[in-house]
TrEMBL record:
It comes from Photobacterium alginatilyticum. The gene is citX. Coiled coil: none annotated. It comes from the Bacteria. GO terms for molecular function: holo-citrate lyase synthase activity; lyase activity. This is citrate lyase holo-[acyl-carrier protein] synthase.
Length: 179
């Protein structure tokens, strides 16, 4: 445990194992909350390259995303039943339990943030319904997200579609500089 913590403190050493542990933690928490609250969840992470995780930039995106989520709920008379915010070596993440009549409407509201907020392209707001299923964009008749760098449709089967980390980081910084 101590070994892990000291490793986690070194920001540049956030490797695939940390991400794997992180995902397992998150799935466990999601399942517990679905059982105890019986309401849809939003899992929020910041979409920036690993090696700039936990910088002031990722916290700015994160804080603004949380604010946007609360505003979206207030506008629709939904309430945040509970939430957990974690600042992890892999970047900040939050899980919200939302008292809403519909997970699909919740997904549509989150997509709206991803599209309309000035930092929305750098936010990942995933919705899980009360049965534990992730609500997809297709399920809401919404198009897939575009590639952050070139704006093309992102096809996971298109292995030729790669951009270098440098290109990715400079695009993230360009979006962030608009704030
Ligand atoms: Zn691209």
């Amino acid at each position: 445990m101590m070994a892990k913590r000291s490793r986690a403190n070194r920001r540049t050493d956030t490797g695939w194992l940390d991400h794997l542990v992180n995902v397992e933690d998150r799935i466990h928490r999601q399942q517990e909350w679905l059982k105890s609250h019986g309401q849809p969840l939003v899992t929020f992470t910041v979409k920036i390259p690993n090696n700039i995780d936990n910088t002031a930039l990722s916290h700015t995106i994160f804080d603004q995303g949380i604010e946007a989520l609360y505003n979206a709920c207030t506008e629709r008379d939904w309430t945040v039943t509970t939430r957990q915010i974690l600042y992890k070596p892999t970047g900040p993440e939050a899980i919200f339990v939302i008292d809403t009549p519909s997970a699909s409407l919740l997904k549509a509201a989150m997509i709206k943030i991803e599209h309309s907020h000035k930092l929305g392209q750098l936010m990942d707001l995933n919705v899980t319904d009360t049965d534990g299923h992730t609500i997809s964009r297709a399920g809401c008749q919404m198009p897939r997200r575009k590639c952050l760098v070139c704006g093309r449709d992102k096809d996971i089967f298109d292995h030729s579609h790669h951009h270098g980390l440098k290109e990715h980081i400079s695009k993230v910084k360009e979006i962030a500089s608009s704030v």
